[in-house]
Recover the amino acids of this structure.
C-alpha cells in the first residue's frame, strides 16, 4: 500500500501571510500552479489560490492586499505517512484537487495533487479519484453583478 509520501510533490514554494497578491501571482505564473501554501515559518496557516485572488482581491478591488486578507484559512491537509487511499477519500469528500502534506510535528513537507494521484497511483484507483473529485457543479446565479450580461460575453444588440 502506498503512502502519501510515495506520490506527493516535495520542495514546494510557500508564501508568507504578509506577501502581496502580486508576489503570489508572479510565483504562480513562474511555477505554473494555481495554489500556494501560506506559512508562518514552518507552520501552515492558509492556502491561496488563483480563485481566492480573483474573488477576494481583484473582484473586490483590493489589488494591493496582503495574502492574509484573501487566503483560505481553513486548510484541509493530510499526513505524509497516511495511506494514499485516505488522502484520496479526503480530497473526494472535501471536493479539493490538492492537499498540503504535513509531518506529525505539523511542519509542511509537500503537497499532493490530483495530478500526483493520476500519475503515481494505479489507473483504476486514479480514474475513480479523478471522476469523484471532479464532479460537475453548477454556477451560483442567485445574484447579479455589474459584470452580468449575455452568455458568451460582449454586448447585446
Amino acid at each position: 500500500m502506498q503512502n502519501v509520501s510515495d506520490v506527493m510533490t516535495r520542495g514546494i514554494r510557500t508564501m508568507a501571510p504578509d506577501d502581496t497578491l502580486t508576489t503570489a501571482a508572479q510565483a504562480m505564473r513562474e511555477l505554473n500552479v494555481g495554489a500556494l501554501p501560506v506559512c508562518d515559518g514552518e507552520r501552515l496557516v492558509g492556502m491561496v489560490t488563483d480563485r481566492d485572488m480573483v474573488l477576494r482581491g481583484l473582484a473586490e478591488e483590493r489589488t494591493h492586499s496582503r495574502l492574509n486578507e484573501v487566503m483560505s484559512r481553513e486548510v484541509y491537509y493530510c499526513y505524509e505517512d497516511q495511506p494514499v487511499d485516505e488522502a484520496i477519500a479526503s480530497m473526494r469528500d472535501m471536493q479539493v484537487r490538492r492537499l498540503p502534506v504535513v509531518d506529525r510535528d505539523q511542519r509542511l513537507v509537500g503537497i499532493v495533487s490530483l495530478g500526483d494521484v493520476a500519475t503515481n497511483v494505479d489507473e483504476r484507483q486514479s480514474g475513480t479519484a479523478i471522476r469523484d473529485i471532479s464532479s460537475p457543479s453548477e454556477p451560483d446565479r442567485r445574484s447579479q453583478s455589474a459584470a452580468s450580461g449575455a452568455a458568451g460575453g460582449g454586448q447585446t444588440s
